[in-house]
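FAQ: What does the model actually see?

It sees only this:
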Amino acid sequence: MTRILLRAHKSPFHSASATETISKRLIGSNVGNLMFSHASYRLLSTSGTELTTSKFENVDANEINERYDVAVVPLANAFRASLTDGVREMAGLFEKLTIPIVVLGVGAQGPVSGTFQSSDLDVEVTRFVRAVLERSPSIGVRGELTAQYLANLGFGAEHVDVIGCPSMFLRGPDFQITRKVDALTKYSNISLNVSPYRPLIGPISVDHALRYPNLMYTAQDQRTLGLMLTGEFRAPYEPPEGTPTNLNHPLIRDNRVRFCLDPTTWMDYLANFDFSFGTRIHGTIAALLAGTPGLILAHDSRTLELANYHDIPYRVLNSKLKKVDAIRLYEKADWTAAMTGHAERWDRMQAFLEKQGLRHVFLPGESPDAFDERLAAVDFPPPVQMGMRHDLAALYDLQRRIPELSAGLKRAEAELAAKKKPRSRTRRWLSRTKATLVRTVKRATPGRSSL
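And it is asked to produce this:
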């Protein structure tokens, strides 16, 4: 029995509510993180394997060495400046492990040019890769841009395997995409995915919301889930104009946003659309795995290199892209190369797993049936939508009235402070205003009882 410790934010079989998902960070910052860990779990669920998931946070290296035979680490765009501390912490853990470490796809993030600035990150990535290579024959990366980045750090091709993203191998050698309709119309069922921090996606989302009445926003990031639960988009940055991050955006206002908490419900949901497009690479991959034609608006090196490696149709999203229209994107996209090249890419992934000493469910005598049957028995929550926990009308009322009530409250408090004997009328007004404000907040956000 091979005991594998798989890095994942949660087990594929754990059904969690939206509240639990956001409070325990079960998707990290993006539900896309579950897509590649889910695929990795299914891929490695052989008859002679015992899999355990872990976030690799606050773990005991000695316990890992004692309990497991191998650590498998599927990663996203981990090699980026904002995750320097995370790379450092993981490298520190790896240096304490004595078991093999299999990195099942990791990417570097930079501009679409693929030029990465030298920084403190380089030092930590070098340490990270050395720790992996001291315990395994090679490291798996997502694409050629990441391979070149590691080559610039001194890691040659003999130690770096380009394998893409494990999510694309959820079904092993099988990968088929069929156009459901010959051409889109303004009434087609279209799914849009959005990176709410990208300025250029804002006008696109508003334009398509107004022109395509059946278009839905399939959200992925934790902050948008927070917006759907509380009516507030909390972020350390000012959301770019037009992004669906407030209650006035037409997609939010008209309840045309859904959030799938698990890969299973995500793919089931996207199977109902004619076309999916947007800036989220795993939103596009989820659609493709659901059999729905998808296209990525590539906006950085991580999205571009995966699109290139897996031959996923894309357009580079920058100021030179004058017009984005779903009908035209669908008309010009071709999924032939994604399908015809999949067999070769699958062979490359198989060879990587064999080199690492790992078996998979598509080998002779193995099957993914046990995983699929166990998954089918889980009752996952339906996609989250606006108004599931709250009175949506109250959210709009709250947004409209709070500035007015708060301003009046401050004026009344100032008046009271300036008077030794405030008039009863002022005191009554102040009491009523406070009660109204508290009542409005309570009505729109149950459980929040104080200001």
